[in-house]
Specification:
This protein is 35% helix and 36% strand. With 121 residues, the chain is α+β, with helices and mostly antiparallel strands. The chain has a 4-stranded antiparallel sheet with strand order 2-5-1-6. A two-stranded antiparallel sheet has the order 3-4. The protein starts with a strand and ends in an 8-residue tail after the last strand. Belongs to the YciI family. This is YCII-related domain-containing protein.
Length: 121
């Protein structure tokens, strides 16, 4: 079963760049090790960090036509910082991986099944 894990982090910390350097390095080291562990177990499919939220461009349909807006919404408290796709034996295993992320770095992790057309979707 494939799942996407969406990791959200504090928007203010991201925008202001106020990460504690030691905590930031610990998070980087954790994600590096997690990637190795998932590659070794065969569960890791793909992961990526995302660019600065200020580079976001949202395209949407409105009653007057298609509109594009730059940047994140001001009221957002968390920003999508990274994502990963895992191929695991069960939803519970995906949740275990997400718990590992939350416990290590404190990010909020949303876990959603991928609809890939297989019988497991």
């Amino acid at each position: 079963m494939k799942f996407i894990m969406l990791a959200y982090t504090n928007a203010q910390t991201w925008v202001e760049g106020t990460w504690d350097p030691e905590e930031f390095q610990k998070a980087c080291d954790f994600y590096e090790q997690l990637g190795k562990d998932l590659a070794e177990s065969g569960e890791g499919v793909y992961t990526a960090g995302l660019g600065d939220p200020s580079l976001t461009r949202t395209i949407r349909e409105t009653p007057t036509g298609t509109v594009a807006a730059d940047g994140p919404y001001a009221e957002v408290k968390e920003v999508l910082a990274s994502f990963g796709i895992v191929d695991v034996v069960s939803a519970d295993r995906a949740y275990e991986i997400a718990h590992r992320i939350v416990d290590a770095v404190g990010d909020i992790v949303e876990v959603r099944p991928l609809m890939d057309g297989s019988a497991d979707s």
